[in-house]
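Hi everyone, sorry if this is the wrong subforum. Our group has a chain we'd like a structural model of before ordering constructs, and none of us has done structure prediction before. Sequence below.
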Amino acid sequence: MFEAFDRSGTGSSKWARAGAGRIALGLADMDLPGPPAIGAALAARARHGAFGYTVCDPGGRRLVADWYRRRHAVEIDPDWVMLLPFGPRTAVRLLLEAAAPGSPVVFGSPEWGGFGQLCRAAGLPHREVPFVRDAEGYRLPLAEFAWPRPGVVLVSSPHNPSGQLWRHSEIRALAELAAESGGLLVSDEVHGDLTHPDAGTRHPVAVAVAGAAARHTVTLNSVGKTFNTSGIPSCFALVPDEGLRERLTAVMAGHGLWEGGLLEQLVQQAALAEGEAWLDGLLDHLTAARELAVAALGGAVSVRPQASYLMWLDGAALGRAAGLEAGVPPERLRERLLTERDVELSDGSEFGRAGHGGLRMNYALPLNRLRLALTRLTCAERL
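Answer:
Right subforum, don't worry. Here is the predicted structure as tokens:
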């Protein structure tokens, strides 16, 4: 199911960024076919031929709630669910506008670069807090996140770029911090459904682990990462505070946006209603791919991923594994691997100041192609 997949000639942003003849391990989507149910739903609508304005189907909210009950053992009130016809980046931008306009925003580093880009574009005061490293991975320096009574706290959970699961107590503490300042925790959990079977713990759904502070949280998720449908952007937000739901709806209306969407709803509903068996197979494939990458790259792997299909690599250690001369500057390592090994990775500078010297690798591709990429990176004769 997950082998021999060719995206050439399909307009893939990921492959175009890498260039012809190269193996793209940068952009966070999968070189794997999605669930047949999604293709069938789109084909059925195409045959019908009606593509006009479409109401928001309230049954989609129940599908989301049922999904969280089955996959996360979490009870979600369907009234909390907002079905959004745009991607998580746009959702975060609109939430910044709806939650606390002009208030300080705080987030960690290394972290998904969209947080900083959105704050700078909106002219919002913001602080980038370096995460703390220990023997087990990254930790949230909670005291540093308290600056200065933040209006919004942003976190990617699971952590992007490393695929690490945050502790439940850490996410709860962030929610309590937001509540104490009268603010909001926005937890971007688009990789949460990609928690590996051997992770050893459940993904901490923010609204579920926040306890009394749940009203001060928004949990963002999307079928885009889970089912590889980011080319039809959509997401859903779990918003327990009714007032915030109303403000977000008003902000959306001011931008000519509303809940629902034709293709977006078709994709969401097909994925959540019929994609679960496919997802279980995908998770087995990603676990095998992760093990292959960890075995090949060894000490270059900064944190062993527990979720997603992303791996955070230490640039200096990767340079040694690649057989490059010592002292290659971090800003040149990605370029050297691209031009000399024909493998494209994401540069660590995309993930904030603390990302300098790192590289992110996407391992969601057929195993034979991943073996080829790892062979090129490490100069191994065979993997």
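For your construct planning: DSSP finds 14 helices and 14 strands in the chain. The radius of gyration is 20 Å.
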